[in-house]
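Q: Hi! First time asking for a complex rather than a single chain. Here are the components, and I think there are two in total. Is that enough to go on?
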Amino acid sequence: MNKCVSAAEAVSVIESGMTIGIGGWGPRRKPMGLVRELLRSDVNDLTVVAYGGADVGLLCAAGKVKKVIFAFVSLDFMPLEPAFRKARESGSIEVREIDEGMMLLGLRAAAWGSPFIPTRIGLGTDVVTRNPDLALVDSPYDDKEWVAMPALNLDVALIHATREDERGVCEIASPDHYMDDWFARASKTTIVSADEIVPSEHFNDPDVARRVYWERNCTNKVVHLPGGAHPSSSDPLHGYDVKHYKEYGALITEGGIDAYAEAFLGDSEADYQAAVGGLDAIQSLPLPVY
Amino acid sequence: MTFSLAELMVCAASRSFDNDGEVLATGIGLLPRLAASLAMRTTNPEMMMTDSQSYMLSNPNPVSGMTSHEGQANENWMGFARIFDNVWSGARHALVGPSQVDRFGQTNIAALGGTYDAPKVQLLGVRGFPGNSISHANSFFVPKHSTRVFIDGECDVVCSIGYNPDRLPRCYSFDDIDIRRVITDLCVMDFNGPNKQMRVISLHPGVALSEVQENTGFELAVADTLEETPAPTNEQLAVIAELDPLNFRAKQLKDNPPGVRAA
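A: Yes, that's all I need. Here is the structure of the assembled complex.
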């Protein structure tokens, strides 16, 4: 069994109108190489589910997005994501804005085949009033009302792991795997890029096996992309690229996606990495300290 | 000993955690984090805190001067997904910095002005505020007390549940909502006025009550005995200096004003 494909082949399963989930968190371990491949495609009209950073920003700026399901889009050290901000303020995208934990519940519902998970989260706030399709339900066990957080069924999930084997066993060696396991489980097709492709024996070490958060039958496509998280971090291999994010912010704000694409995107990941200073430079970015 | 307004606010905010016992305290932003860390180091050693990344700590990390997470006092792994497992049970007190606070104690960090579909300024998004506000205690830290923050009318986007009778879910009462303190550059407030009205409980040295009311877009209640916010003790200042060796706290408020206003 060998699930290895190129980034372009992997991303070619994504069709216009699909719902895609993107793993990682803000500026941390985002599958940016896969997102860049999507930017180079002619796919559009996507619904995007993410704990968003520049992944969401870039897809919005490129006009690929119909709707964003989000709790935040932020780069942490740059609290306001410049491209998402532009898209929101121009009214060019639809949104479903929900609590961070509600998104987790929606992914779990999808993974478990439940139509919804009841929760009190969202009650009393604009999460309920601004999302008219978010139903309130009665409980058979008490008299309160409950938010029925619907399943976030994904067509495709994009994730970046530290290492994986060619069968799709994925190791996340970073301090946090975020909700990546739930993105993988909530999706019909899961594409995982990784900094390193390793032999399966790598996972024989019990400490390594404990860093595998979903099973290989949840991973459909394996893509070898060293540095593929850039400009986000792939802790413990490298940190995020503050300088690049700042350049991205300036280019997007002044010239939109065309200015950014002209400066960096290129026709392939090799072009991109050459434009940002090469793989060695990416791999020597210092780890963030919070 | 002289002290800055930032240090006064940190000490005032840290007192919000005094009686919390064994709860997870989360201070978002440098001064709120410093306040929670100070409480853990002085008045409430039972408190719990994370490294803002993925571990729970037995001893808070410094807010400046740290070059690596290695060697920190980990006590358990605490990734983001697990945060919800813990905090939705109620054992948490968050100290957060909203962009808007209305008379109900509802807050906004999502977007300002315009319409919901095309806001004038997109901020962060609702983040975890809806879940936090209906699950556990929350206090607010406001570096610049003004009518832009404490607005007339309701928040542009209501991110957290407050004491608003019109939004109260079925079979809920105000007792299900726990907003503790509001610490600003002028005063300390709570929501223990009549019918959960926001109430001034102490004024910072040299601040007049009229100045607080003028900079608030709605009517405030006032505590029967209005106190002066206590000055930081030498012990508190020493712990603060230890937790913030590079004095990042001096860069958080414009011009780093002194804690006692010049007469």
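A: Chain A has two domains: 7-98+152-274, 116-150. Let me know if you'd like any chain examined more closely.
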